[in-house]
Amino acid sequence: MSGLVVGYGSPEHVKIQEMFKKISYRGPYLSGILTNKSAIMAQNYLRADCPTALPDKSRVPISSANGGLRICYDGQMGNVDQLAETHGISAGPFAEERILLHLYQEYGSNMFQHLDDAIFTFVISDGKDIFAARDLLGIKTLFYGRKGDTLYLTTELKSLVTVTDNVNEFPPGHYLDGSGNLNRFAELPKTPPEHLHNDLNQMVGNIRDIIQRSLQNRVDFTVDTGGLLSGGMDSSVINYLASQLYKEKFGNDARLKTFAVGVGESEDIETARIMAKQIDSDHHELIVDLEQVLIVLPEVIYFLESFDPSLVRGSVSNYLISKYARERGIDLLLSGEGGDEIFCGYIYLKDFPPEELFERQMECIGFLHNNASLRLDRMNHSNSVRVVAPLISGELFRYTLAIPAEYKQKPVGNDKVEKWIFRKAFEPFLPAAITQRVKQEFSQGSGSAALLPSYFENLIGDDELSKAQSKYSIIRSKEELYYFRIFTDHFGDGRAVDTVGQWPKL
């Protein structure tokens, strides 16, 4: 997970440098800028992105075997070893980049059929032509815009607005070719697949196996690794499995570092303690107050590039704990992000009948690209930390789509138990305080959701909100107005606003 900037057409080197500087925190370990005919390409990496690379000997962006193509890349492949073996790619640094270059040379725009367990954005160019793409779920971010006859692509909005007001989010599941056209290569399914079966034991066993494999394929503890532990199901499962792997590699006395954050003695803090004790982790807590949250809000919104209240609240907590972990030497953090989308964990999904759940789940997953996935990417990268989310797995996604709706949202009396099948799969290994805990958004569990809305309700008057809403209909609350003002100070109130995704619930 790194950063990229590309100019194609008649780019100015000084402009590319200016754009690249804006995202330097995404890769202070290794970086490079290459000028090649009509393209200038800039790439940076964190140490955790390429731990075996030597900064004084590695030249980036990475080139193809014959040197004709260069690639700028940000992503993760869950099946990188399998792809490398299948396509004859040698081991060593930048295997994923070399795989992508090979696939592009072999298959062109048909390369994506081989990337069913990858999240990515990349730009490939030989200096005369260009090819760019973003993964189906939009987990990795990409923006593009034009200035004169030059096309600019970059990982973050703040980088793009330095050169043009013509800013656009690169749509998920699309590629862009030399003609400048955007073409769809994949889309979310419109109808559910056939149900797998009704063998519950087999189902929970398969879920455990897939998640275990996803974690093993993505993490090897080469760099200092810790776990984000909120005390919810998703993060508890990932930290439970990671702790097992950590002890297998370093001995039974080895303790994985885990990190929890709360505004005061929040529910997240309390349940994370229970889980940390269960797995015998080296547990760290960061307890903050409202004043500390308010101080970092402008930084959070700048890095996040959003003003959506639900997203900002959760991102504050994520930003603070990521910064705290980085200050303690952590290069890579494990996250449980993705579980709510995969297993239908959001509470509002209970409002819909089983026959409508699939459609609503796809709608929920469709929010990822400019909402929830931003927290995952931005709050960790702003602190130069790589983040890995094993629940965001192509294999797991495909498997769970075929699980019957009543196993995801299980009817119990007059209510439903969200993520029931996921809870069932891991209830033998986790404390009841975790498996029976009702789903809460990160901002709710960490405590920020309880404080921020009421604070801004008292800070901003009704007339002030009405006046702002008459000009910007997108603003839904006083809290959102406050965040919107910070956002527009950095990115303007033009097309940048259109890149912001809003969660359906405030």
Would you kindly provide a written description of the structure presented here, covering whatever features stand out?
The protein has 506 residues and is α+β, with helices and mostly antiparallel strands. It has two domains: 3-184, Glutamine Phosphoribosylpyrophosphate, subunit 1, domain 1; 200-467, HUPs (Rossmann fold, 3-Layer(aba) Sandwich). The chain has 20 helices and 19 strands. The chain has a six-stranded antiparallel sheet with strand order 2-3-1-9-8-10. The radius of gyration is 22 Å and the shape is globular. The chain starts with a strand and ends in a 15-residue tail after the last helix. The mean pLDDT is 94.
- Highest CATH level, the class of the largest domain: Alpha Beta
> What is the count of β-strands?
19
Helical fraction = 40-55%
CATH topology of the largest domain: Rossmann fold
The share of residues in extended strands comes to 15-25%
Largest sheet: 6 strands, antiparallel
Count of discrete domains: 2
Sequence of strands across the biggest β-sheet: 2-3-1-9-8-10
Class from secondary-structure proportions: alpha+beta
Shape: globular
The stretches of 5 or more residues where confidence is low (pLDDT under 50) are: none
| Rg over alpha carbons | 22 Å
| Beginning-to-end CA distance, first to last residue | 30 Å
CATH H level, superfamily name of the largest domain? HUPs
Name given to the CATH architecture of the largest domain: 3-Layer(aba) Sandwich
Mean pLDDT over the full residue set: 94
Number of H- or I-type helical stretches: 20
